[in-house]
Fold this protein.
Amino acid sequence: MARPLLNAFAMPVLHLEIESQIENLRGFKEDLDEIFWALEDRTGPAGHALGVAIAQVGQRMAALEATARHLGTEVVLLPDLGVDEARALDRALLFLDGELVLAADDAPAKLWGCIRRLLAAADDVLLAVSRGTTAAAHDDATPRAVVIPLVRSRG
């Protein structure tokens, strides 16, 4: 099967700080908590859905923490990203570096749209990080040069 021309070129190795992404998610989770507690009817459908979203953000944070523990580092290398995945990851990182800003009179659809984008961005980061490697593992996979002396030693 023919591969697209763009995939024939090697993408640079990306370095991603897991702890920074966990902190970003923590900030969004706190924002969602504030919105939850500001609801007049927390036991209604909107309160339940918001509670589910908060729990999902927490699960993604826990998965990122587990990955950091597994790798033994907070910096992961992402050497094998394709062009489309690299673009998706870049969009996810830009979103996660932002804030959840909603006015009290904003339509509920705006909140649910933000939550969908938040969970999708967290998933993009989590899936990329879970396939990442450490610097040591990346260095071990790099071919080393072999030096052969051209002069015969006397001995």
